[in-house]
Structure formats: C-alpha cells, structure tokens
Amino acid sequence: MQMNEKTICFDLEGPLSPQDNAYEVMKLMGEEGAAIFEVISRYDDLISLEGREGYEPGDTLALIVPFFLLHDITEDDIRAVSARAKIVEGAEYLFKKLQAENWDIYIISTSYEQHAHNIGRRLGVPEDHIRCTKLDLTKRKQRLQESVFPVLENAQEEILMLYSDLDSDSTDRIVNRLDELFFQQLPELGVDVFSTRVIGGERKAEAIREIAHEKGIALRDVIAVGDSITDYKMLNEVATHDGVAVVFNGNEYAVPYANVGLASGDIRFLYLVCEAFERGGKDAAMDRVTKWENNRGEFEENPVNIPDSAITADIKDFVTTKKGETPFPYFHNLERADERTKEEIITIHKQVRMLVREDAGKLG
C-alpha cells in the first residue's frame, strides 16, 4: 500500500468525542431544550428509516436551527459548549500513531463547523480535512420574519407534550405534528430549514467518495469509522467496495452495515486494525479481528501471552498494565455474523456506548 493510500475517515461524535454537541447546545434552553431535541431526534430516525426522499439521517441539525434563533443561541454559544467536550479515551494516542506513520486522516461529521473544527484542531486534523455542517446563525436571524416566533413558541409547547409520551406509541403524532411544522408552517413563512445542509446519511457517503476521487484511490484503500444512523450509508459504501468499515460502539442502525465491530471504552485498539490494514490490506485486517474475536477470553485472562502477531508492543503493555482497571475490547468480524449473532453484538455495543457516551448514547 503506497503512502498516499493510507486513508482513514472518522465520524466525530462517538468515535472521537462522546459529546453530542447539538444536544448540549439545546440544553442551554434548560430541560425543555433537551426534551425538544430528543423528540426531533426521534422524528429524524423515523422519517430516515421510512426512506423519505430528500431527507437524510442527521438532518436533526437543520431542524433545530429555528429553535436556536427563537432562543437567541449564537455561534459563540456552540463554540463554548464545544470547548467543554471530552476526547474519547485513546483517540490522542491513535491519532499521534497514525500521523507519525503518514496516514491521511479525515473527519466526516454532521457536527456544526464550530464544533468539528475545535475537535479537529485538538487532534491535529486541519480544517481542509474536515467535512462538516456549515452554520451561520447571524445571517439566518437577519432574514427571519417576526411572525415566525409565535409559530415556533406554539410548536415548542406541543413538542414538550409529545415528549411526555415519548416512550409510548406516539410515533404517528410526532411525525404528523413535525411534518406540519417543518414542511408546511415554516416554509409558508419563508423559512427553509433545509438550507442548512447537514453532512449526514448519503452526504457522508458522497464525501468519502469525493475524498477517494481527489486522492486517486479506490474505496478498498479506505478505512471508515462510524457509530450511528448518520454513518450507515458511509459504512455501507466502504464495506461494499471491499474497504474496511468499522462500527465503534455502534447502535442497531450502524452495526449491520459495517464489516468490523469494535466495542471499547478506548479507541486506541483501532490501531491494531489500521496496522494490519497497512501491512496486508483488508484481508490482514479481517484476520486480526477474527483472531481477537475467537480468542478474546484467553487474551483478556492473560494479556501478556497475546501473540505478537495479534498486537503491538505498546498496546500489549497497555492492556497488561490496565488489566482489571479498564473494560477489555470486543472485536467482531461482522461479515461472518448471522442475524442472531448481530443482535448479540448490538447488545454489547449498546452497553459500551452508554458507558462512553452517557446521555448522548440514547440518541440515534
């Protein structure tokens, strides 16, 4: 594999930072903001799964913008919330290793640019290697008619009522009310919520194709890393073109579309896949993943005896030193998993996901 072919593309929220930035920004409105976000996020899942034309998973980040404007949330607020974001354990180690070995690292994220550029900066990824959602709240506010605000205030009250029934079968009511708001009421007042072009769903797959085209490489030369509904098309794009698609602490929307599963509180273990991939392409990466899956119990019990062919010296030192202190990673070869096995894998991923992502773990 040539130097310029070592390419890896990361989703941001989940694999690199546990924070769901937009969710945390909505919390600036108080408990009501979190509730509104959860209802709209559920709506996003529902209409994404029905395959509605022109709608992409992750467009939640377009739908909440009018509520930012209603509550006078600014781009500086987004940056301030982002400044509090943690980095996933092991990410700094992983990025330093990959950068030292001349990997070309990209971030493809639904996140607003104010957050994506901050996390990218902290991990040493330049802005021209970040594909994310552009957002200019100042311009949006200037174009807004005053008549929009009463409509949003009324919708907000109704969304909060829907939130109280979120765990019951309120699916139809959520879809009907939010369809009315986003596809009828706001457009009639000159508000096109979809003028915020969110990088999610097919747009992530599009971004990874563009990156490969710009670099003159095939998708089989790419590793993609994601965890949620906004990533499944990107993961599927890479997996079906014989690249390595890694789902990291994923949910039921992402796991079925990847070919490698990694459930771990620490993403440094992804380096084992990258190192094998660089050495021998997808086959070597899958062989290593399968070896870990087949021998996990033995590896966990005696990490010092993990064969050198399955691990690097410094990661062996890490797992040996941290034995009993940190959860041992789960690797899965998803290409050989049947539906029952995939359900078991999803359960494992969700358990680790909730530990790593906390409140954000429950979102799609």
Task: Summarize the structure in short.
With 364 residues, the chain is α/β, with parallel strands linked by helices. Helix content is 52%, strand content 10%.
Keywords:
Rossmann fold, 15 helices, 364 residues, alpha/beta, elongated, AF1437-like domain fold, seven-stranded mixed beta sheet, 2 domains
Topology:
Blueprint (H helix, E strand, L loop, with lengths): L6 E4 L10 H6 L4 H19 L10 H4 L1 H6 L4 H9 L7 H10 L3 E9 H11 L6 E4 L3 H6 L5 H16 L7 H18 L13 H14 L6 E5 L5 H9 L3 E5 L11 E4 L6 H32 L11 H9 L8 E4 L5 H19 L7
Helix pairs in contact: 2-9, 2-10, 5-7, 9-10, 11-12
Please provide a written account of the structure:
The protein has 364 residues and is α/β, with parallel strands linked by helices. The protein folds into two domains: 3-12 and 101-107 and 203-362, 3-Layer(aba) Sandwich (Rossmann fold); 21-90 and 111-120 and 129-195, AF1437-like domain fold. The chain contains 15 helices and seven strands. A seven-stranded mixed sheet has the order 3-2-1-4-5-6-7, sandwiched between helices. Helix 2 (31-49) packs across helix 10. The longest helix is centred in the C-terminal third of the chain and has 32 residues, at 270-301. The chain starts with 6 loop residues before the first strand and ends in a 7-residue tail after the last helix. The mean pLDDT is 94.
